[in-house]
Write a structure and sequence with these properties.
The complex is a heterotetramer of chains A (321), B (315), C (346) and D (503). Chain B contains 14 helices and four strands. Chain B is mainly α. Chain B has a single domain, classed as ABC transporter involved in vitamin B12 uptake, BtuC, CATH 1.10.3470. In chain B, the strands form two sheets. Chain B has a two-stranded antiparallel ribbon with strand order 1-4. Chain C has 346 residues and is α/β, with parallel strands linked by helices. Chain C folds into two domains: 142 residues, Rossmann fold (3-Layer(aba) Sandwich); 139 residues, Response regulator (Rossmann fold). Chain C has a seven-stranded mixed β-sheet, with helices on both faces. The radius of gyration of chain C is 22 Å and the shape is elongated. Chain C starts with a helix and ends in a 9-residue tail after the last strand. With 503 residues, chain D is α/β, with parallel strands linked by helices. Chain D folds into three domains: 236 residues, P-loop containing nucleotide triphosphate hydrolases (Rossmann fold, 3-Layer(aba) Sandwich); 175 residues, Rossmann fold (3-Layer(aba) Sandwich), CATH 3.40.50; 70 residues, no CATH class. In chain D, 32% of the residues lie in helices and 26% in strands. Chain D contains 17 helices and 24 strands. Chain D has a six-stranded mixed β-sheet, sandwiched between helices. In chain D, strand 21, helix 15 and strand 22 form a beta-alpha-beta unit. In chain D, helix 14 runs parallel beside helix 15. The chains are: A mainly alpha (321), B mainly alpha (315), C alpha/beta (346), D alpha/beta (503). Chains in contact: A-B, A-C, A-D, B-C, B-D. Chains B and C meet through helix 3, helix 7, helix 11, helix 13 and helix 14 of B and helix 1 and helix 3 of C.
């Protein structure tokens, strides 16, 4: 009996609770204000819109969880998307294109991790540098051209449906579920919490923290490869210089709104998913209620701050008496 | 004998110092561009470089303070926009130049204060807060301008961005004064002590009877004010203010500070390091522009440079 | 280990710089004396500065400019900022004034910001032309534009109206940056025209993408959701049209829109809209040739340098007949459909 | 019993040419507790780090279960059955108790996934078996310090540790919990675990340990059974000379009331506390955990949000809502956690020493460097801070000298009331004595002093008057000489209403 009660109360005091409630409230508000907002079609549109940010935000969550930060996500996504597009243009079979893109993403992600670990430079500095480098390389290899004219098979990845939902949505859900399971039940997943929670203790325990870090950045790179593929395939074209330029702040926003701690040790798939949904929903909802184009950024920023405050209130309640 | 060895040690120290490395990089840039870029080594061009870095240089001062205290402000680019637009709109409306400038600075103080209160009083990490306010303040820029550039200022206003005193651009002189002043604050006043103390150990600082939250609010407000000053020089130089004014400045400045050896976790680093960092980036951009090299290479070189500068320091 | 990596990085830096200097990629290969134009006798050097580099539109303009350089036997330096940034653009132009090039062509990001810089250029005796978008009350010799802002805005609108069965219903307007002066001018012209001539058209909103491809697509998806009875989308920037087409296609596939219900008209960069214009998502689009503009900028600078007058109706090799009004040179817009879209290589 | 499980012989270790250990010996036997004592810098922690594989040793041999061993990292040592509980706990605050115990343990995984049910069940069994009363599904950050220590011990048990090293295990524990810990240690002894007990606290050592090893300057200086030696002898062996007076308390002239607190409450532990401190008086606050003895100084110094009460300084009413206000009202506070609250270790002695007073050394915000230098020189000399110069970083000082810097920082503000919260934690014996005599001198000079300590003898030895707290109120008051350990402890254990007739 006591067990049951505590489990129930644990659900209500979960770190994700405020953001979930907040998201639902915003959803309700938009439903009232815009007649076409609360429809199955619109929900699937929102879902489609958030897939790329959502996938990247999950990678960002584990990076933040181990106390890191990745400013290079947008550049790496652009680079992977460009590579994918160019390989497709070169006539490679789609399966090979996908495979190679994922490999490239993973390798470049690991490179981030390697530079951080081997040169002992803080994450934010390394990724600030690679942000510039990856973007420059992407623009350079494309000679500033749009990459377009993809094969049908390649375009199918982003547009065809499996059941009710499109492939990108299903991929996003799959990645989220895999992440949730890994973080909860995989020993490696628990290590991430440990490394982020108390790095010194992790070192003293004999954990190979550098290798954990490299692997996390590699996984992050893998997801960026996937997101890059989806980007090129969904939009049918990709331009190296402008693709996903503000992605790092958007995805960090999602993760932080979802309860991740910038110093590491906390964060959850559920929270991040809801953080992403909230941001995606606001974008969609503001268009639906015909908000002035000049108010979009302001309202988005205000909502991010508000969501952070909501999280804070809950933390305070827990922290002090 | 003893003296000799100590002078030896001193020399070793100088050689190992990161500032030697930074000055070395600058010397290398001069050498390289002196040969490769036409007109690089002319007085006009050197002044040109200084003028170009002056606004970013002004913002780099409070940002260095913030970094030293273990904080960060990712919203400075947006604050440049808000202040520049405020000032520009008043100028366009025919208000006196002095009033417009003061209003711009006041706007900077207010938005900086908002950042400071959220960070200091509500105790949310500065990075997180300023990611949010970055988007919000930029939104404010769009609301204020409705997307149209704000221009048409009185002629006297252009003196700020374009005028000279004794052959030196006014903005460069102001930048120099600001740096000297800021160095003095950091090295010689109690406020400088507080900044370092907070950056190294916030808890102990609080336990020493120092109002940490007040210092933070002051720092962010100061950041807003200096950013506003920079934005005024900027709109005077650009003769207009538009909604995207200053976007991306934050990462440029942080890159410069990191190249200059400021510890991203706070507590250690010197103001002169940031200045050298700003100079390195400014010279690089100018030199590559003069050579007519595509900016694509600029970002790659900048990235590699950042890694080299920071890696060398640790190694 | 650390040192080794640092050294490798440093070497990489040097290599990168050396590589860049070895192949001055963006500048055209020039006859005779190499890169240095400092000595009096060398060829003339012109600096052409787009709003930004990296976009297909500007790449096409670059090709035109470099072609002109080759045809006229002058050196052309093409360089721009990697994102739209007024301050950096000004820095770049100022740097080139320092370098004392023989002429400067600028696609101005902010209509007013160039005033001081152009004055500086004048003092230094360097002629300036603008292209693509003009600078207000500034010391420039000529401005090369596709057409007047009014004419362009109305041409875009007519591409949409032509496709619509009758000029009525809901129309959404998509723009790139809400702070780009020429786009705003086109928008105003198009909206004014609608108000005057097409009272049955209802504008549901103006959606800026801030030059973000992803955001353009998301916006289109969202306003289609909000307006199931949408009749048309007016796209006033190059990247908006394919985003709108993509969103409409998907909505049709999902059964939310009738096939052919939503017409898409406006600016279309042929290479980006080729597939949509061929599969019938849209039937016509309006564009001008950025190559011509690039070409004309260099050509105009060279005419000024040689002291030649530029007059209305002049024939420019590779571009055709040009229209000149006061100090504005118009290269003209064109309309294209599925038949002739393959003729355009940009 | 008595079977030798581990022998360290002639261990030597040098850091960049400087010997930390020259010839250290340590012999552990199953089911016995070995005390390892020595002044700071004597090499205790280096020896323990070698034993647990964190450092490599330059010379000597380690025999474990009769076999020579050479651990390359902490993981190897732990797998072999040697566990250590650091002074600063190595727990993951964001994980549950069960996870902390079994992190990375393959025995609670099935098919490569964590089996939460099995893990929680086994963890709860282990916690229950040594008398823990908390749920293993709680996050460690929500546990009290003593329960966190229990988690550390359970961690060692779960790893089947046969050798358990406890580094200053009581430094974070209040006196009552110490007995609890000792019960746990006795339980471990009965299981045949060999324990190394590293501590400065001789009372505890003489209570719980069987044998004692004294390290001095990297050499094992003294080996004995505890029963065969005395505290005096051990202290003498540690510092190499006889110490006669450990608590050099002089009688100071006690004057009028300097500070008075009425109805102090922090909204939590401290309920309703009223007391006053006189000029030249050292007032000891003593109480078990949760009694408010350590919380009371924090509330006085404005560190606790929601604390309230009436405070009078020299008869004038003052408010104390923040440390800044407290400092402005001439109150100084030496906190218990030196590293996190007392010093800024990356910065110089000068910086630290003038941090609280620097604003007063300014003319129009600019520091008067001559005055600053004079202040720094003055206090370094007065407090006999051993350092290479005032620009030396504090991190390079010994614990005792670091603490002197903290005290100097406060003396520089010329306080009327000095609050010392556990001022000698982690300070070696020699420096302790110096700090005690300093406190005594300050009282003689007329300063009002409040002292709390987790060491009962410190309170007894230093105080002119002792207030014993229980459940947030004063349960009894003793004058100097009236109390001994037993009466103090029993007063601390007794409920306030039972002692109403007291004093």
């Amino acid at each position: 009996m006591k067990q049951h009660k505590s489990r129930l109360s644990r659900i209500f005091s979960a770190r994700e609770m405020p953001i979930i409630v907040f998201t639902l409230l915003v959803y309700g508000a938009f439903s009232v204000m815009a007649p076409n907002f609360n429809t199955f079609n619109n929900v699937s549109v929102i879902a489609q819109q958030i897939t790329i940010n959502g996938i990247v935000a999950l990678g960002m969550t584990i990076v933040i969880m181990i106390g890191g930060m990745d400013l290079s996500v947008g550049s790496l996504l652009s680079l992977c998307g460009v590579f994918a597009g160019m390989m497709d243009n070169a006539g490679l079979p789609v399966a090979l294109t996908v495979l190679l893109t994922l490999v490239i993403g993973t390798a470049l992600g690991a490179l981030n991790g390697l530079l951080i670990v081997k040169l002992h430079i803080p994450d934010i500095i390394v990724t600030l540098a690679t942000m510039n480098i990856f973007r420059g390389v992407a623009v350079m290899v494309t000679r500033s051209q749009w990459i377009t004219d993809f094969s049908d098979a390649f375009l199918h990845i982003g547009s065809s449906k499996g059941g009710l939902f499109s492939i990108p949505i299903l991929l996003y859900v799959a990645v989220a579920v895999v992440f949730a399971v890994c973080l909860r039940w995989l020993p490696f997943g628990r290590l991430l919490y440990a490394v982020g929670g108390n790095r010194e203790a992790a070192v003293l325990m004999g954990l190979n923290v550098p290798s954990v870090k490299i692997r996390v950045y590699a996984v992050n790179g893998f997801l960026l490869g996937l997101a890059g593929l989806l980007f090129a395939s969904m939009f049918g074209s990709i331009q190296a210089a402008t693709a996903a330029t503000s992605l790092q702040f958007q995805t960090m926003g999602s993760a932080l709104i979802g309860g991740a701690n910038i110093f590491g040790g906390a964060g959850s798939v559920l929270g991040t998913v809801f953080g992403t949904i909230l941001l995606g929903m606001i974008k969609n909802g503001l268009v639906q209620i015909h908000a002035s184009e000049y108010w979009l950024d302001f309202i988005t920023g205000a909502v991010i701050l508000l969501a952070l405050l909501v999280n804070l209130i809950q933390l305070r309640k827990k922290g002090r008496c | 004998m003893v003296q000799q060895s100590s002078s030896h040690a001193k020399m070793l120290c100088v050689l190992k110092s990161r500032y030697t490395l930074l000055i070395g990089i600058i010397a290398l840039e001069f050498l390289l561009f002196g040969f490769l870029a036409p007109y690089f080594l002319t007085l006009g061009n050197i002044l040109n470089i200084l003028r170009q870095i002056s606004e970013i240089g002004m913002i780099s001062i409070p940002l260095t303070f913030l970094l030293l205290s273990g904080h960060m402000d990712l919203s400075v680019g947006s604050i440049v926009g808000v202040c520049g637009i405020t000032c520009g709109m008043l100028l366009r409306a025919g208000q006196p130049v002095v009033l417009a400038i003061l209003a711009g600075i006041a706007a900077g103080a207010v938005v900086g204060f908002i950042n400071g209160v959220i960070v200091g009083k509500l105790k949310i990490q500065a990075v997180v807060v300023t990611i949010g306010t970055q988007v919000m303040f930029r939104g404010l820029c769009y609301i204020m301008t409705s997307g149209r550039a704000v221009s048409g200022y009185p002629l006297s206003f252009y003196v700020l961005g374009g005028g000279d005193i004794l052959g030196l651009p006014i903005s460069v002189l102001v930048l120099g004064l600001c740096y000297v002043g800021a160095w003095f604050v950091l090295e010689r006043t109690y406020f400088g002590r507080y900044i370092l103390a907070i950056g190294n150990n916030q808890n102990t600082t609080r336990y020493s009877g120092i109002r940490v939250d007040r210092v933070k609010i002051l720092l962010f407000t100061f950041c807003g004010i200096m950013t506003a000053v920079a934005s005024i020089f900027l709109i005077s130089r650009l003769s207009s203010a538009e909604a995207t004014l200053g976007s991306g400045y934050e990462l440029d400045i942080i890159t410069a500070a990191l190249i200059g050896g400021i510890d991203i976790n706070g507590g250690s680093g010197k103001l002169q390091g940031t200045f050298l960092g700003i100079l390195i980036i400014g010279i690089l951009r100018n030199g590559l522009n003069l050579m007519g090299l595509s900016v694509i290479y600029q970002s790659i070189i900048l990235g590699v440079l950042l890694l080299v500068a920071v890696a060398k320091r640790k190694g | 280990m650390k040192k080794a990596i640092a050294i490798i990085l440093a070497a990489g830096l040097m290599l990168a710089m050396a590589a860049c200097t070895g192949t001055p990629a963006p500048s055209a290969s020039t006859p005779a004396s190499g890169s240095g134009s400092a000595e009096g006798q060398a060829t003339r050097t012109y600096f052409v500065n787009p709003k930004m580099v990296g976009a297909a539109y500007w790449e096409a303009a670059k090709e035109g400019a470099l072609q002109a350089g080759e045809d006229l036997g002058v050196e052309v330096i093409w360089n721009g900022t990697s994102e739209v940034d007024v301050a950096k653009q000004i820095n770049m132009v100022t740097d080139m004034i320092t370098r004392k090039v023989d002429g400067i062509a600028v696609a101005v990001n902010d209509a007013t910001s160039m005033t001081n810089v152009f004055n500086q250029a004048k003092e230094a005796g360097i002629p300036v032309v603008t292209f693509d978008s003009d600078s207000e009350n500034a010391e420039r010799s000529y401005c090369i534009l596709p057409d007047t802002d009014e004419a362009i805005g109305e041409a875009f609108l007519s591409a949409l109206i032509n496709q619509m069965p009758e000029p009525k219903g809901k129309v959404a307007v998509m723009i790139a940056s809400p702070s780009a002066a020429n786009i705003i001018a086109w928008r105003d012209a198009a909206l004014a025209k609608i108000e005057a001539d097409y009272p049955d058209i209802e504008i549901v909103g103006v959606y800026p993408s801030n030059d973000d491809q992803q955001k353009a697509y998301e916006n289109a998806k969202s306003f289609i959701q909000a307006n199931p009875d949408l009749a048309g989308i007016l796209c006033l920037a190059g990247a908006e049209t394919p985003a709108a087409c993509k969103a409409v296609q998907e909505a049709v596939e999902a059964g939310q829109l009738e096939e052919g219900q939503v017409k898409i008209g406006g600016m279309g960069i042929p290479s980006l809209v080729r597939e949509y214009i061929k599969d019938g998502t849209m039937t016509e689009s309006v564009m001008w040739n950025p190559m011509s503009m690039g070409y004309l900028s260099v050509w105009a600078l060279d005419q000024i340098a040689q002291g030649n007058e530029i007059t209305d109706g002049m024939e420019v090799p590779g571009v055709g007949t040009i229209k000149v009004e006061d100090d504005r040179i118009y290269c003209g817009t064109f309309r294209f459909t599925a038949e002739d879209v393959d003729n355009y290589q940009f | 019993m008595g079977e030798t499980i581990l022998e360290m012989q002639h261990i030597a270790k040098a850091f960049s040419g400087v010997y930390a250990l020259k010839d250290a010996q340590l012999t552990l036997q199953k089911g016995r507790v070995m005390a390892l004592v020595g002044e700071n810098g004597a090499g205790k922690s280096t020896l323990m780090r070698i034993l647990t594989g964190i450092y490599d040793h330059d010379g000597g041999t380690i025999l474990y279960k009769g076999q020579p061993v050479h651990f390359k990292n902490a993981m190897q040592a732990r797998d072999a059955g040697i566990a250590i509980i650091h002074q600063e706990f190595n727990l993951f605050p964001n994980l549950t108790v069960a996870e902390n115990i079994f992190l990375g343990d393959k025995s609670v995984q099935s098919h490569g996934l964590v089996d939460w049910q099995a893990m929680n069940r086994r963890a709860q069994e282990l916690v229950d078996s040594i008398g823990g009363t908390f749920s293993v599904e709680e996050k460690v950050q929500e546990l009290s310090v003593q329960n966190q220590q229990v988690v550390e011990i359970v961690k060692a048990l779960a790893a089947n540790a046969e050798v358990l090293i406890m580094d200053e295990p009581t430094s974070a524990l209040p006196e009552s919990e110490v007995q609890h810990l000792f019960r746990t240690i006795r339980g471990l002894k009965a299981r045949g675990v060999a324990i190394v007990y590293v501590s400065h606290r001789l009372n505890e050592i003489f209570e719980i340990c069987d044998d004692i090893t004294v390290l001095r300057d990297g050499v094992t200086a003294f080996l004995s059974e505890v029963g065969a030696t005395t505290q005096q002898e051990v202290v003498a062996q540690m510092i190499g000379k006889e110490v006669t007076v450990l608590y050099p308390k002089q009688d100071a002239e006690i004057g009028g009331v300097v500070f008075e607190a009425r109805h102090l409450s922090d909204g939590d532990t401290v309920k309703d506390l009223s007391f006053c401190v006189h000029k030249g008086e050292i007032l000891g606050l003593y109480g078990l955990v949760g009694s408010g003895a350590t919380e009371c100084p924090e509330a006085l110094f404005g560190l606790v949000r929601g604390a309230h009460g009436t405070f009078l300084m020299d008869g004038r009413e003052i408010s104390l809502h923040s440390p800044a206000q407290a400092v402005a009202n001439r109150i100084a506070y030496v906190p218990p956690d030196r590293h996190r609250q007392g010093i800024i270790r990356q910065l110089s002695i000068r910086f630290n020493l003038t941090l609280a007073v620097v604003r007063r050394l300014c003319t129009r915000s600019v520091i008067r460097r001559k005055d600053e230098q004079a202040t720094v020189d003055d206090y370094i000399r007065k407090l006999r801070v051993k350092c290479a110069g005032d620009s030396q970083k504090v991190t390079f000082l010994s614990g005792g000298n670091q603490q002197k810097v903290v005290i100097a920082k406060w003396l520089a503000t010329n306080p009327a009331l000095l609050i010392l919260n556990d001022p000698t934690r982690g300070v070696d014996v020699g420096a302790k004595a110096e700090i005690y005599s300093l406190i005594s001198e300050l009282a003689c000079a007329g300063m009002a002093i409040v002292i709390t300590s987790s060491e009962i003898s410190e309170i007894l030895g230093m105080s002119d008057r002792i207030l014993v707290l229980n459940e947030g109120v004063v349960s009894r008051e003793f004058l100097r000489g009236q109390a001994d350990q037993k009466s103090l402890l029993s007063a601390a254990l007794m409920r306030p209403d039972e002692t109403q007739g007291g004093v």
